Amino acid sequence: MNLLLISGGRHPYEESTPILENFLREAGHSVEVRWDTDALDELNSLAAYDALVFNTLRYGKTALTKLQQDNVSNFIFNGKSFICIHISGCAPESWPEYSNITGGGWAMGKSFHPPYGQFTVTVSQPDHPAVLGLSDFVTNDELYMGLEYSDDNDIFMTAYDPGGTHEWGGKPKHMPSGTFPLGWTRYYGKGKVFVTLLGHNGLSFETPEFQRILLNGIEWAT
Fold first, then answer.
1. What is the pLDDT, as a whole number, of residue 81?
2. Between vectors from CA 15 to CA 9 and to CA 18, what angle results, nearest 5°?
3. Which of 38, 78, 163, 221 is the most buried (most CB within 10 A)?
């Protein structure tokens, strides 16, 4: 598939994006990596791609322009695919429609997570195309909590956290126990949307199961 990969922002993308580009190419995909958003300025140019992959945080001063937002929305709504990784689902205040595309994600000022570390990911829907042939696995990552979230998301993986008190924003914060969604699929118009909340840094992207899930997700979406 012909993929446009948008990266950049306040995350260790200099670690994760080269790994992502490499295993996408090894799987036979054509990948154009952009660290800016200029490629989103022309809807006609976007039509050359099968899928848009976001491994990026575009919020505040780095948020997409109104034109770019509309182009991305139309690209997906009219039948193309969107792959949304980790905090890429964070919706800027200037783009409320983005939450309808992604089905939710990280919410600035609301969401939180325990310290980066190792935890077990549960394949909660083994027959879902994104996780076919995979079983529960251990990864190094962030377990997101307190998300914006749509009830019509088709969840395929989760993780359990026993809860506890951790430092957040320089203060102690109680984080609840529970099972939290880590991946889902949904539709936006005629387009397919794949979301994973995993993928914080290079080590996270090196997890073989994570790579397989992303490749499966692209295959499902396209």
1. 98
2. 100
3. 221
86 contacts 11 by C-beta, under 8 angstroms: yes
Cα pseudo-dihedral 184, 190, 191, 192, rounded to 10:
30
Closest to 64 (Cα-Cα) out of 86, 94, 34, 84: 94
Question: Which sign, positive or negative, has the C-alpha torsion 148, 61, 58, 176?
Answer: negative
> HSE-up of 49 (CA within 13 Å, CB side)?
27
Strand 191-196 to 137-141 pairing = unpaired
Report how far apart, in Å, the C-alpha atoms of 96 and of each of 11, 32, 91, 92 are: 22, 27, 7, 7
Positive or negative: CA dihedral 112, 113, 116, 122: negative
Give the Cα separation of 147 and 96 in Å (integer): 15
Rounded to two decimals, the pTM is: 0.96
Ranges of residues in the chain whose predicted pLDDT is under 50: none
Closest CA to 5 of 108, 88, 98: 88
Q: What was the pLDDT predicted at 162?
A: 97
Task: Tell me the CA end-to-end span of the chain in Å, nearest whole number.
Answer: 8
Q: Please give the pLDDT value at position 170.
A: 93
pLDDT at residue number 204:
98
pLDDT at 142: 98
Cα(81)–Cα(130) distance, integer angstroms: 14
What is each CA distance from 76 to 86, 128, 157, in whole angstroms?
Answer: 19, 21, 23
CB burial string 175-197: b at 16+ within 10 A, e below: beeeebbbbbbbebeebbbbbbb
